[in-house]
């Protein structure tokens, strides 16, 4: 039993994997069919979410409740930039992708400046940046003459290798790369140290400001890449197309097993969390729940997981009964209290 508890503690993605398996079995029993088409549809939808969520994971890993709320606006603006500059041609696609990714990196840098240099809470800073980007999107929207997708980008977003969606292959590759960065590089170690204890990391010589800045830049680039691919998948761009990814990107990170307080991240769990969220939405759609009710259910699930994670963190940080009594008891006679 202890071995199992230790395994689940070290591999927190197991719970997301179990949730995916159980929900998938329940769906197939209810629908009385198991087809490659249904698997492909879930994989495609989860892949776009996973790319955004992987970037969000790096920001969450920095701790102190850091969350990037600008990802939704970055996704939307990136889609408009890609559609406008590519104009349906492979020749101009590199320029369009470069501009979209540069925009995502720039947004990440500004977010980091507001959080690291000016000390503004991440949720407030990134939310404000989201409103600025929404205004920029409205301006770009006026210059869009039509919606034409570059064939190469369309193949990446909607193509297949056999029965496997290309976007699913890209999402798995991105997950493997993120896992390598988090677990096998010096940056991953500094990221974990920054999220676990900022002050201790600073005393140990970790450049926590640079680490946090890099995390926000990664988040912006991932959201921009997802927006560019999403524009090809839907055949264009429209206002608020990135809105669903705001709640779901955080939900995928949390459901996947990453600690919302920072210090521990799992790329595989984030990918599985994205699949789990898509399955939850699919289940609600089968039941015929309206969009508003679907958002409520997703919010309840995420809040429940956060509550459980928060309770566990409080129990871990709470001092032992003997230590707590010692902290509140008066000093013994003849002893001087430090």
Furnish the topology, listing elements before pairings.
Elements: H1 2-10, H2 13-31, H3 36-61, H4 71-86, H5 93-117, H6 122-141, H7 151-158, E1 160-161, E2 164-165, H8 166-184, H9 186-196, H10 198-203, H11 208-234, H12 244-255, H13 267-287, H14 291-317, H15 321-328
Antiparallel strand pairs: 1-2
Helix pairs in contact: 2-13, 3-8, 3-11, 3-12, 3-13, 4-5, 4-6, 4-11, 5-6, 5-11, 7-11, 8-9, 8-13, 9-11, 12-13, 12-14
Description:
The chain is mainly alpha-helical and 338 residues long. The chain has a single domain (45-317), classed as ABC transporter involved in vitamin B12 uptake, BtuC (Orthogonal Bundle). It has 15 helices and 2 strands. It has helices at 2-10, 13-31, 36-61, 71-86, 93-117, 122-141, 151-158, 166-184, 186-196, 198-203, 208-234, 244-255, 267-287, 291-317, 321-328, and strands at residues 160-161, 164-165. It has a two-stranded antiparallel sheet. β1 (160-161) and β2 (164-165) form a beta hairpin. α4 crosses α11 (208-234) and α5 runs antiparallel to α6. It is globular, with a radius of gyration of 22 Å.
């Amino acid at each position: 039993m202890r071995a199992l508890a230790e395994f689940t503690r070290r591999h927190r993605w197991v719970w997301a994997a179990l949730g995916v398996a159980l929900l998938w079995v329940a769906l197939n029993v209810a629908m009385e069919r198991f087809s490659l088409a249904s698997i492909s549809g879930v994989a495609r939808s989860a892949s776009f979410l996973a790319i955004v969520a992987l970037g969000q994971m790096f920001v969450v890993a920095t701790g102190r409740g850091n969350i990037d709320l600008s990802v939704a606006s970055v996704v939307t603006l990136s889609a408009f930039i890609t559609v406008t500059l590519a104009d349906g041609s492979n020749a101009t696609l590199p320029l369009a992708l470069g501009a979209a990714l540069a925009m995502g990196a720039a947004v990440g840098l500004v977010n980091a400046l507001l959080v690291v240099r000016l000390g503004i809470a991440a949720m407030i800073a990134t939310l404000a940046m989201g409103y600025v980007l929404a205004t920029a999107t409205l301006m770009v929207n006026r210059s869009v003459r039509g919606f034409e997708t570059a064939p190469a980008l369309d193949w990446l977003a909607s193509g297949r290798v056999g029965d496997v969606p290309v976007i699913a292959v890209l999402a798995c590759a991105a997950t493997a790369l993120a896992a390598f960065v988090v677990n096998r590089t010096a940056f991953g170690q500094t990221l974990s140290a920054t999220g676990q204890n900022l002050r201790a990391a600073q005393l140990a010589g970790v450049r926590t400001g640079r680490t946090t800045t890099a995390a926000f830049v990664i988040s912006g680039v991932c959201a921009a890449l997802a927006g560019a691919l999403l524009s090809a998948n839907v055949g264009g761009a429209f206002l608020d197309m990135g809105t669903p990814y705001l709640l779901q990107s955080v939900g995928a990170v949390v459901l996947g097993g990453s600690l919302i307080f920072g210090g521990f991240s799992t790329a595989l769990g984030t990918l599985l969390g994205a699949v789990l969220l898509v399955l939850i939405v699919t289940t609600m759609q089968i039941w015929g729940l309206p969009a508003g009710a679907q958002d409520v259910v997703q919010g309840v699930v995420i809040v429940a997981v956060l509550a459980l994670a928060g309770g566990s963190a409080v129990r871990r940080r709470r001092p032992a009964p003997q230590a707590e009594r010692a902290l509140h008891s008066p000093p013994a006679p003849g002893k001087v209290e430090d």
